[in-house]
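Below sits the subject:

***
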Amino acid sequence: MTEQLPATSVAVLGTGIMGSGMARNLARSGLDVRAWNRTRSKAEPLTADGVRVPDTPAEAVDGADAVLTILYDGAATLETMRQAAPALRPGTVWAQATTAGLDALESLAAFARENDLALIDSPVLGTKQPAESGQLLVLASGPNAVRPVVWPVFDAIGSRTVWVGESAEEAAATRLKLVLNSWVLNVTHGTAEALALAKGLGVDWQHFLDAVEGGPLDNGYMRAKSAQLLRGDLEPSFATRTAEKDARLIVEAGRRAGVRLDVTAAGAERFRRATGAGHGDEDMVASYFASFDGEAP
C-alpha cells in the first residue's frame, strides 16, 4: 500500500455528545466536513460552523477522503456503515472512534475487509468538554501507509494521538480504551458511593475533601465529579446509559481474557439502576442515585 495524502474532506457519522464537538473542530481546522446523524435536528446546528448536513450516511461519505464514526455502539456503527456502503470508495480511510468493544470490532473489521476500506481503530479518551475544545486523547492503531490521511483529522479533534499498533484488527487501541474506561468508571462509582455514604452518615463532604487534600488519595477528577453532583448539575458529559454499555463491554472483554471484573460488573448494575430511576440521560455521576432505595437526599 502506497502512502496517501492528508485528508481535505471528512465525513462524520454520529453527532451526539462527542461527535458534534468533533465535527465542529474539524470544520474550524479548515477541512470540508459532512456530518450525518440519525436524528437530523442534532446535526443541523453544525451548519453555523460550515458543516454540511446530508440526509443519509451514503451522501455524507460520497467523495470523502476519510470517514469518522462516533456512534453509540458497534451495532449502530455497522448498521450506519452498511447504509453508507454504496458510496464508499475502495481504499477510503475509516477512523472508527466508537467504543465498540472487542466482539463488535471484529465485525467492523470484517466489513472493512469486504469493502476494501483502510480501517484505523481510533477510540478517544475524553468527554464533552474535551471534545468541544479539541483536546481529546486519540488512541490509534492502523497501517503506517494510511496514517497521513488522518493526521489533520486527529490533530483537529485531539491534543495528541498515541499510536499503539499497526493493525486495526488486533484491536490494540480498543483494548487500551477499555482498560482506561474501567478506571474512569470505577473512580466515578467510588466518588458517587463515598458521597452517598457521607450524606447518609451526616458527614460534611468538605471535611472529606480537607482530609485528603494534597495527599495520595486526592484526585482532581473526584473533586470535579463530586462538585458537579453537589451543584445538582447532571448535564451529561458521559451519559449514564452509555456508561452502562461501556461497563458491560469491559466485563465481556475481561471474560474473553479469563479475567473476572467484579467491581466493573457491580458498577454496570449501579448504572442500570440509576437509568431505571430516570437518570439514564444524565451524567454518569448519577450512579449516586443507585445508592438509595427511595428518594436520594
